[in-house]
Amino acid sequence: MKLIKLSQVMAKTTLSKSTIYRLIKTSGFPQPKKLSLRAVAWLEDEIDEWIVSRGCKNDSSPSNSISTLQAYLLLNGGNKYE
């Protein structure tokens, strides 16, 4: 179980801070865990699962295909063929 900070969540998801917090309120984006009065972090596994779940929609648009590929590469340590 690894905890990651907001900056890492933003990098993994390519979402802005405001978008992340809006998704927490309006959809199934993982809730942060409170570490102290002013600090929160997310479970990395929950963020990874959310990324993968977003790529499973029946959307064949190029942007969705790229997002799915990016999620796959993030979760599998990059391109193994380089």
Write structural notes for this entry.
The chain is mainly alpha-helical and 82 residues long. The chain is 52% helix and 10% strand. The chain is built from 4 helices and 3 strands. The chain has a 3-stranded antiparallel sheet. The radius of gyration is 14 Å and the shape is globular. This is AlpA family phage regulatory protein. InterPro entries: AlpA, Prophage_regulatory_activator. It comes from Haemophilus seminalis. Pfam families: Phage_AlpA.
Short note summarizing the structure:
The protein has 82 residues and is mainly alpha-helical. The chain has helices at residues 6-13, 17-26, 44-54, 62-75, and strands at residues 3-4, 33-34, 40-43. A three-stranded antiparallel sheet has the order 1-3-2.
